[in-house]
Design brief:
The protein has about 190 residues and is mainly α. It has a single domain, classed as Ferritin, core subunit, four-helix bundle (Ferritin, Up-down Bundle), CATH 1.20.1260. It is built from seven helices and no strands. It starts with a helix and ends in a 15-residue tail after the last helix.
């Protein structure tokens, strides 16, 4: 390469480096920001989905239920690891468990509902899992949608990922319930029906 070519390459690298430096760096969200609260709440929400999936996997025989439960468990465990890392990086606490009313709005299962996954006969436990997870996912959409346009790129990306993945799983859960001629649970307040 001649000297002029080398200078052009160096100049291009310099401009590229300057552009990288000029990119806005993601700002650490404040501890009381909607972004931190969303990540704290979604971590707890994912914890419960993993718990429900593990419980039904211990008893379920239906291949479709088992496959869906395993997908949910693995996907949400992975997202939880990401969220734990963000909270550590932001020096933010894990968050407090929601009160009963807030838990209902999030679509969370009650302790008795979780227990039923262990105590119901197999077919009924599978159906109960589908009902609980459908309501649970509907709650996740309510939580995620307001954050899809967040200025914090990590949070906006997660909110969009949750909305896409769980929106798709809601259709699967609904079709599995219809195949069983089972009625879904009432959706969390604020959830529009499709």
């Amino acid at each position: 390469m001649n000297r002029r070519g080398a200078l052009v390459v160096l100049a291009a690298l310099g401009v590229g480096g300057a552009l990288l430096l000029a990119q806005p760096r993601p700002v650490t969200p404040a501890p009381d920001s909607p972004e931190v609260r969303f990540v704290q709440d979604m971590r707890m929400h994912h914890d419960q989905a993993v718990t429900m999936s593990v419980l039904v996997l211990k008893v379920a025989r239906d291949r479709s239920v088992r496959s869906l439960a395993l997908d949910i468990q693995l996907g949400q465990e992975e997202q939880n690891r990401q969220m734990e890392a963000w909270l550590r990086r932001w020096n933010a606490p894990d968050g407090a468990p929601p009160g009963a009313m807030h838990a209902g709005m999030m679509g969370l299962a009650t302790p008795d509902e979780l227990l039923s996954l262990k105590t119901l006969p197999v077919r009924e436990a599978e159906t109960q899992f589908l009902r609980l997870m459908l309501r649970h996912h509907q709650g996740a959409l309510l939580m995620a949608r307001p954050l899809t346009g967040s200025p914090q790129p990590l949070v906006a990306g997660l909110a969009r990922q949750v909305t896409a993945a769980q929106g798709g799983e809601i259709h699967t859960l609904g079709s599995l319930l219809r195949a069983r001629e089972a009625t879904p649970l009432p959706a969390p307040a604020g959830m529009s029906h499709h």
